[in-house]
């Protein structure tokens, strides 16, 4: 049974005072695994990149431990790990803040620069998803995202731009409203793009609705929105329904722990073992 996200107050570290300074010992006790909900693009990319899935009867099966607590968006993940000293989770690198700590993976620090040069390999695309019938307004917004103006915003927000040689945006004569739906990881940078775009082109309004990648893809497929947001690659069965993905940025996935946890690094194999439930105690990680 999945544990509820609610006031986990168990101390995970032992503090020792030495000449007035508190020295924190290594984490101890049961590991509180925090994962994302089914349909999350971040979860899909995370389990794929760390091999937390097995093929059964021709299908890939997510093997995340049933003991994991489930959070339904990026903000809840950050808040949960920040409030639980025994926890470990994962979050979009661009959404990382100082309320939690990102650990190194296989010796590489989770930074945009390391994602860009492939030193940090836990990375995935940020995609927009569109169908065959795209309005002029939606196309104009996409033109902005892929322009040097939009790509500079993406870089400023801590993600990796996909086009270093993009040209400046030139507004067209389209008017109307654009609805964008999907991934809570893509959502923050999409909101920044929409805000800047609407200052440049006042004839078009952009509404960003955050949910998860699967909802964004399905909404674009069904025509519920103009543009879907997905923080993973599209599956074959999704593209067969007539939608396509366009990569607008590249993002890393940071493995995060509580700030009071003095752990600095994990191997990919350790992360896999923790999230599949093969390792359940911090002593087995740090010994």
UniProtKB/TrEMBL annotation:
SUPFAM superfamilies: Periplasmic binding protein-like II. Residues 1-25 form the signal peptide. GO terms for cellular component: plasma membrane. It is a lipid-anchor. Keywords: Lipoprotein, Palmitate, Phosphate transport, Signal, Transport. One of its GO terms (biological process) is phosphate ion transport. Residues 27-148, 173-284 form the PBP domain. It comes from the Bacteria. It is found in: Cell membrane. Belongs to the PstS family. Part of the ABC transporter complex PstSACB involved in phosphate import. The complex is composed of two ATP-binding proteins (PstB), two transmembrane proteins (PstC and PstA) and a solute-binding protein (PstS). This is Phosphate-binding protein PstS 2. The gene is pstS2.
